[in-house]
Amino acid sequence: MPITQLDKDKFTQVCAACGAERSLSLSDAKPEDTDEGDHLLRLPACSNCGSIELLVPQQTDPDTHPNPGGFTHLHRLLIDELDEHVAPARVNAALKSRRAKHFPNGFKVRLPRGLVPSADREPGDRPRRAETLEPAADVTPKSDLST
User: Fold this and answer.
1) Are 55 and 69 in contact (CB under 8 A)?
2) Which residue among 14, 31, 83, 90 has the highest number of C-beta atoms inside a 10 angstrom radius?
3) ∠ CA(101), CA(105), CA(103), 5° rounding?
C-alpha cells in the first residue's frame, strides 16, 4: 500500500492488508533484484497483521504520467525517490532533480478518500475492491444463481 511521506532518514507507509500506518527507517526497505532484472524494495512484515509488501521502483520520467499531480503519479515518484535513498547506485540524477519539482512542500502525498482498508477486518483478510476504491455493483456469484 502507499508510501505517504519520505524524510531524510525514515518514511511512512500504510499497510495494504490492515490499514495500519507505520513509520519505518530507510534501512528497513531492503533492495532486491529479480532473475528478470527488475528491482524491488521489500518492506518488513507489518507488526499489526504480518503482511509483507514489495514496492516496484520504475525510475520513469516524472513528467510523462497520464495524470500528472494525481495520487498514482505522486506515489510512483515517492517509490522511485525511496529506491534512490535505499540503493544509491540506482540514482538517476536527471530524474531526481525533475522529480523534486512535484513536491514543493516535501516528499509527501495525501491518501485519496476511501483508499485505506477498513480497520475492523481480521488480520490476514485482504482488502476487497469495494473497500479500497469505490463501491462495487451488487453482483451475485454464478454458483448462487438458481437455474
Assistant:
1) no
2) 83
3) 30
Q: What is the 3-state secondary structure (H, E, C) of 51-116?
A: CCCEECCCCCCCCCCCCCCCHHHHHHHHHHHHHHHHCHHHCCHHHHHHHHCCCCCCEECCCCCCCC
Nearest Cα neighbor of 96 from 80, 76, 112 is 80
Q: Report the C-alpha gap between 11 and 47 in whole angstroms.
A: 16
Residue 34 contacts by C-beta under 8 Å, 6 or more apart in sequence? Answer: 40
Q: Burial code of 32-52, b = ≥16 C-beta within 10 A, e = fewer?
A: eeeeeeebebebeebeebebe
Give the pLDDT confidence of 113-123 residue by residue, as tens digits: 766 655 555 55
Residue 29 corresponds to which cell in the numbers above? Answer: 526497505
**Residue length, the chain?**
147
Residue 4 phi/psi, 5-degree rounding, is: -110, -15
Positions of the chain with pLDDT lower than 50, given as ranges: 127-147
Neighbour-count burial for 5-21, b at 16+ CB within 10 Å, e otherwise: bbeeeebbbbbbbbbbe
